[in-house]
Amino acid sequence: MKPSLPQGTRDFDASTIQKRNFIFNTIRNHFECYGFMPLETPAFENLETLMGKYGDEGDKLIFKILNNGLENPDKHASATEALQQVMQGRNSTKLTERALKYDLTIPFARYVAMNFGKLQMPFKRYQIQPVWRADRPQRGRYREFYQCDADIVGSRSLWNENELVQLYKDVFKDLNIPVQICINNRKILAALATWCGAEDKLTAITVAIDKLDKIGLEKVCDELSANNMNEEVITKIKAYLQLTLNRSSNTNILKQLHSFFNLVEEGKSGLQELEYVLKQHPDITLDVTLARGLNYYTGTILEVKPLGIQMGSIGGGGRYDDLTGLFGVKDVPGVGISFGVDRIYDVMEELQLFPPDIHALLDVMMVNFGEPFEKRNREVLYALRSAGLKSELYPEASKFDKQLKYANKRGVRFVMMIGEDELQDDVITLKNFISGEQEKLSLTDCIARIAIR
Question: CA quadruple 236, 241, 245, 251: dihedral positive or negative?
């Protein structure tokens, strides 16, 4: 049988990994510069930890793990019964008790709840790990992908939102990706439901609005209608959405929102929070159509979109006060953002934004002229590696041209050659593979020359 990959997954060769590491390292450096500390959580969680935290749409995308031991005859009968329950749309702990993590936020909330008394508040953590979703694979959307999250828990200060917006700006500036950072507030969406007289339909409204850029206004209205919302409610929601669809300025949108929600307390609170962040960052975009369908957001919500390319969001997040309440630890405020590394990679690849020397996996390759030179080659290799230079000796004394072709394909910056003359004069022939320049130098001078980037 011909080998294949599971749909929605990928292998990564050395070239791809170098590019991905460039993204990871850029993001990680900024996380640590902002005072975030690293954390890792398991690849899978107890099913009860994840289910019911992402809304109905999210729950459908959770990868459940089959319980082990089901081949045991004693368990087979109960497993068969459990499978019938699952096929009827019911969960069964006899069949599956665990699931691959859907995102990094809920496992982080679980970690905070389990370790609450030990953590110094506010607690700032970053996390760079893969997550899994049973989604339909397409461009920029995979079933296994990495998230890079930064979260702050234990503080209600809006300064945190200000910091996270600036973090987005700094990272994407270093990656050279032009972006639009969009902001909204879940309190505004809750006020919209109240203003429409449809408080009990908040989840349905946010889920529908979250699909606006994918399905368009007409189909959003169809979905609202399918959720038993009358024409008056739908007309008000359309008027609200038009504030962004008409490309109004932030100032005009805020003015109109004040007129909509002047009698809705939650709306006033949401507007105050929006105005604070927009005052710090007037260059970001107030987008009232931004909903982010996850149920746990309670305040500011953010999304980052690349400019000049057709691609979904490459970052997003927001405030989720009391998320740890899902695990019995009440009243712990939190806010966080995430970077979509896989989409960021696709954007940088298409716009050719990776540094041209990113494939230089080796600084130096030493040409192998055979056993008589092995001792000196080993001494030079040790010195190169001690100086932090990535280096290797070609393993066989093959034809000279073959070794140089290998060096070229590896993207080597320099080639070193030690033959009879070099050994006698205690020098090394150093060839710059980029400029073509070749010279004989001492080992010390070689290292100094190579170390110049």
Answer: positive
Between CA 129 and CA 271 the distance in angstroms is 34
For the stretch 8-46, pLDDT in tens is: 889 998 889 999 999 999 999 999 999 999 999 999 999
For residues 268 and 279, give the distance between their C-alpha atoms in angstroms, rounded to a whole number: 16
In a domain, 126, yes or no: no
Alpha helices in 227-316, H assignment, sequence order? 231-245, 250-260, 265-280
Question: Which tokens in the block code for residue 78?
Answer: 């109960």
Number of domains in the chain: 1
Between CA 28 and CA 241, with CA 172 as vertex, the angle to 5 degrees is: 120
383-to-301, 378, 387, 431, 441 alpha-carbon distances in Å: 52, 9, 6, 18, 15
- Which contacts of 78-86 are long-range, i.e. CB under 8 A and separated by 24 or more positions? none
Q: Are strands 179-185 and 123-132 parallel, antiparallel or unpaired?
A: unpaired
Instruction: Name 66's Cβ contacts closer than 8 Å, sequence gap at least 6.
Output: 95, 96
Q: Is 295 helix (H, G, I), strand (E, B) or coil?
A: coil
Asked if residue 405 is part of any domain, the answer here is yes
How far, in whole angstroms, is CA 203 from its chain's centroid?
A: 25
Tens digit of pLDDT for each residue in 364-406?
Answer: 999 999 999 999 999 999 999 999 999 999 999 999 999 999 9
In a domain, 406, yes or no: yes
Q: Judge whether 178 lies within some domain.
A: no
Report pTM.
0.82
CATH number of the domain encompassing residue 420? 3.40.50.800
Residue 445 domain boundaries? 364-451
